[in-house]
Amino acid sequence: MTKEKTQLMTMKGTVVSDAMDKTVVVAVDTFKTHPKYRKKYLSTKKYKAHDEDNTCKVGDVVEIQSSRPMSKGKKFVVVK
Fold first, then answer.
1. Mean pLDDT in the chain?
2. pLDDT over 80 (residue 3)
3. What is the DSSP string of 50-68?
4. Could you give the 3-state DSSP secondary structure of residue 44?
5. Which residue ranges make up each domain of the chain?
6. Residue 4: its pLDDT value, please?
């Protein structure tokens, strides 16, 4: 029996909140295409990410990576 490697999701975004302890909120922008009209539009989604050293500040561009769930809403880690 072989063990498969899991693909880790990596995204780049901007820190919009650092008010929580060891947690930052990162806004990730993606372009999506409308299925019928084929127009591209900007979609923004916010993710909570674990920041162990509290080094990230609002406005920083960071890279986040999926990890094990640390709480109900926090499933990413700041990689930088």
1. 93
2. no
3. E-TT----TT-EEEEEE-S
4. strand
5. 10-78
6. 61
Distance CA(60)–CA(22), nearest Å, equals 15
Residue with tokens 């080094």: 55
pLDDT tens, position by position, 56-76? 999 999 999 999 999 999 999
Q: Which two tokens stand for residue 30?
A: 């993606």
Q: Chain-centre distance of CA 56, in angstroms?
A: 13
- As a whole number of angstroms, the distance between CA 64 and CA 9 comes to 8
Q: Which residue has the tokens 């999701």?
A: 9
Fold classification of 10-78 (topology level): OB fold (Dihydrolipoamide Acetyltransferase, E2P) (2.40.50)
